[in-house]
Design a protein that fits this description.
Two copies of one chain form a homodimer. By secondary structure, chain A is an alpha/beta fold. Chain A has ten helices and 16 strands. The radius of gyration of chain A is 21 Å and the shape is globular.
Chain lengths: 303, 303
């Protein structure tokens, strides 16, 4: 079991000739979740050789165009690829109004849209083995960060299975399903599994100033994907004014949250060479990687 | 005096990895007109090394997403480049509703939008030396083709100037301006110029079935830019069903309209190699060129 994480784009505000707007795809067991969907995301997805159809959930951070303008085209391409099952979209308050407005040019989709505003409609969303938890960022307008956690069941415990008189024939099934009905008796997976083990946690957060709330939510994440709008520390006044973060602030936040790894994304169009600031941010948080379009990694359960 | 024509993209329905959605830029004397603005048009414009700011008029053919989904991002990039002057957008009935809906993610633009629906708000638009005339196409939903004509004044006529007692000092000015006030007397350019000469005419038409109305409007165009959704003649039923044209129909239409040159654009995503059908369409209309992203040409006045 693992999570595949792919940065489809790493641009902020405006796409560049060779940099897509920020968007991130997370894949697990044949399903996918997309974070943000700015203009061109559908092309970036194609370039990454991924598919539209397995994407069940779109998490939108906020309604600045660079994070949602690609939505109508993206949904149309999903339908073009044969998607029929409902698609869930999570976002801040106002999601329904914005999505319905944008979908004026995507009428008659062959699948339903389940639009969930945080915090009014949901606090968290459990979907199969993953749990998505939005939290508040700080960007001047309503803006969300997201935690995505992949659940990991406990180890199979033969003594426990025997104690609960679980027939050997369904031991395998109960490691995959929550419950199994066998010869008229219902058995729970908890009857054969030990304590839940550490799963995987990804935190995605852009656009925002660094805050204590983000640190609390990103705590011990396996991967923090966080905005790095400006590399140069002298841009702090501009970062404060526009509700963004410096590379160095991203590094400090990663350190305070004790995450395993930090990926930077969402660069200002003026920041054409983010690698120039790599060493500076690594001096604050060594396990930082400068994100780029197409960067990907597979995260595995630790043993 | 000339027109520069650039195909920013040549894709229909969905962008491909290496093919932008159909959009065309026409430049003349420091101004520009954009035809259609699907997702990614702002990036295609950047790749073509053109600027946002000189674009005064956007002509939208219809409201399928592949022709307008790039609008919010495009307007935001115009504002980012410092545009302050109003921008005119022409489109079919419904334009105001659609643009206002899409602009939910582009609030507070620093320039006004003048939204003109054809035929209710305008029949034609004269802007400096150009005249834009929309006309009805046939696509199942309201859809417009456009003529863009560059006006060409008559030759300077020295005898006429003398006859009207126009002072020699303003002969030059009157070849550029309609009227000049000199020593308390107003002089008209018609006092120094001969009969108007043949200008330049471009016809842009997608998405549509071929019709007599289009032939009439495209009559004698210097350049007809027309959709070629399908190369294969066996796709005629599909073309009819979806309101599109075959390459061969485009050739027949160009021939019937007596245009000087035909450029094909707006290829189906399934048509990855439009060049394969080049000879077939040239056998109908020899001066056909298979459009591609970035194709450009300068059209000059004939002598």
């Amino acid at each position: 079991m693992m999570l595949d994480v792919i940065l489809l784009g790493t641009g902020g505000t405006m796409p560049l000739k060779n940099r897509w707007l920020s968007s991130c795809l997370v894949k697990y067991m044949g399903h996918s979740v997309l974070f943000d969907c700015g203009e061109g995301t559908q092309i970036a997805l194609k370039q990454s050789e991924n598919k539209f159809k397995p994407i069940d959930i779109l998490c939108i951070t906020h309604f600045h165009a660079d994070h949602i303008s690609g939505l109508p085209g993206f949904l149309l391409s999903m339908s073009n690829e044969g998607r029929c099952e409902p698609v869930t979209i999570i976002g801040p308050v106002g999601l329904k109004r914005v999505v319905q407005s944008l979908c004026v040019i995507a009428p008659g989709l062959p699948f339903g849209l389940r639009l969930l505003e945080y915090p009014s409609d949901i606090q968290e969303l459990v979907f199969g083995d993953i749990k998505i938890t939005p939290f508040q960022a700080e960007h001047g307008i309503p803006c969300l960060g997201y935690n995505l956690k992949l659940h990991r069941a406990g180890k199979f415990d033969i003594e426990k299975a025997k104690k609960h008189h679980v027939p050997m024939k369904i031991w395998g099934q109960l490691q995959k399903q929550k419950k199994v009905l066998y010869e008229g008796v219902e058995y729970q997976s908890s009857m054969v599994l030990g304590a839940q083990r550490k799963g995987l946690k990804i935190t995605y957060c852009t656009d925002t100033r660094p805050t204590e709330n983000i640190i609390a939510h990103a705590k011990n994440a396996d991967l923090l994907i966080y905005e790095g709008m400006f590399g140069d520390n002298e841009k702090l006044p501009r970062a404060i004014e526009t509700g963004h973060s410096l590379f160095s602030e991203a590094g400090e936040l990663a350190k305070a949250a004790g995450v395993k790894k930090l990926w930077l994304t969402h660069y200002s169009p003026s920041l054409t060479e983010p690698m120039e600031y790599e060493n500076a941010v690594k001096s604050i948080f060594p396990n930082t990687e400068i994100g780029y379009d197409g960067k990907q990694e597979s995260l595995f359960f630790s043993e």
